Amino acid sequence: xxWNREHLATLTAIxxxxxxxxxxxxxxxxxxxxxxxxxxLENQAGQVLxxxxxxxxxxxxxxxxxxxxxxxxxxxxxxxxxxxxxHSAHKVSIAVNADSMxxxxxxxxxxFAALHPTSVEIHLEDQQHSAELLRTAQVMAxxxxxxxxxxxxxxxxxxxxxxxxxxxxxxxxxxxxxGKLNWNxxxxxxxxxxxxxxxxxxxxxxxxxxxxxxxxxxEGFARAVLAGMGWGAMPLLQCQKHFDSxxxxxxxxxxxxxxxxxxxxxxxxxxxxxTLGDIVRKRAQAI
Length: 287
Prior knowledge:
By secondary structure, the chain is an alpha/beta fold. 44% of the residues lie in helices and 22% in strands.
């Protein structure tokens, strides 16, 4: 089936902006013209592609067409780059968890930039939720903890990221009674509501500390733990130097959580995505 590119672009604009009016403004056209294009596209598809509301939500068929649109844009842009070396290739969007970005993934960016004149857009998302951004066509590739590939994507193992519950030594001493750590009185630092590591460890111990902080920044999270605000599960890559210096100590011997990481990307022929994947897998070996 041959799709009208203007209609596909209109559908994508609605999904990205959330409303017909915002899409009309982005495309420099009237809202009624946007509606006409979507009706024509839905007639061709034989089904509803957008659930009208605030915001508008694409159906599974709608998402499939948005993915198709962005994949065509990427392929065309790569071809244009080959034909015209001065041409800047289409933007590549990637979902990465904050801890990976703060410890190893950022090193991938200059490696990639040296090989491709491609704009990169990073979406920071928890590794347990980043696959959803792939499913909704918001990104082309993602670092995720989900080994099951999203429809239309491939999945490859990267490495295992080890998290160690840690705190300042004086904080641990203050909340240790008769040689046993009191998890109920020991304050905890969470990254955000999606961050499950601390909550799982507390649930396993039946602990419900009264003082619970939330610091949604990988660097800020580490600073909060270093400042003595409480304990937090930190990537070993991030906290090993603080263990060596004595600034932090593990809460319990041999207590850690391993999170396997995977690289998922669109399953299309793309020199840009292939190069990016090679760089990411190489850098992940340092974890």
